[in-house]
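I have a small job for you when you get a moment. Can you supply me with one protein entry, sequence and fold together? It will help me judge whether the discrete encoding reads sensibly. Write everything out right here, beneath this request:
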Amino acid sequence: MFYQKDAHEIDYRIYGEEMQFVEIELDPEEGVVAESGSFMMMDSGIKMNTILGDGSNQEKGILGKIFSAGKRILTGENLFMTVFTNEGNGKKQVSFASPYPGKIIPVDLTEFGGKFICQKDAFLCAAKGVSIGIEFSKKLGRGIFGGEGFIMQKMEGDGLGFIHAGGTMAKKELKPGEVLKVDTGCIVGFTQEVDYNIEFVGGIKNIVFGGEGLFFATLRGPGTVFIQSLPFSRLAGRVLSMAPSKGGSRGEGSILGGIGDLLDGDNRF
């Protein structure tokens, strides 16, 4: 029996090693939806249109679009998304770039039961017709202590989506009952079968001297999990820690380092 997909069937090619970009090939009338700020370049004949929501078939009427777009504000994302449609003759290309060093991961939703859950800043672009929403946690612990991993995004539909992982990406296939413990910021995404929760690290020495945070995520199989070695929050934190202080910088090789800042009275609480 012939099955008609709701999402557009797009072709793609990923270029680069550490600073990647994905080139989407669109047939006439095909489209791709993307987050603001990810656009890189496109051929003549492709029209760019800013829309409320994600343009998927799940949005029914103006109220549905407003509700879908309003939920995106909770993840810190833009209220609007951008659709790129091939309105010319023949095949056209449009490209989207990674926001920081890492890997672009293609996600075929038909291979994951029509749904994939990812970090709120991991989504890059998807075929038009794929619904991009948010995945609320139903467990109190995730909401209070989840940090970066609390509010997740979800892609639903039967098309291709693309997510970005910072640094090096690891793909883990969890067996039923198998548990993986992960820093919440290092989670890129996982399939809908994976049970996700927040767990207390425990131990007074771990809390006071560990430097790894008080909580980590537990991911229980079965399912597929994508892990990143360099979350953007970690990258930004290291960059800020190396920024020169108001009174100047001692440089990376300073013996005193942060202790020197305390002695000088530069540390502000």
The helical segments are 61-73, 140-145, 204-209, 232-242, 258-264. The longest strand covers residues 46-52. Residues 140-149, 205-212, 252-257, 262-269 have pLDDT under 50 and may be disordered.
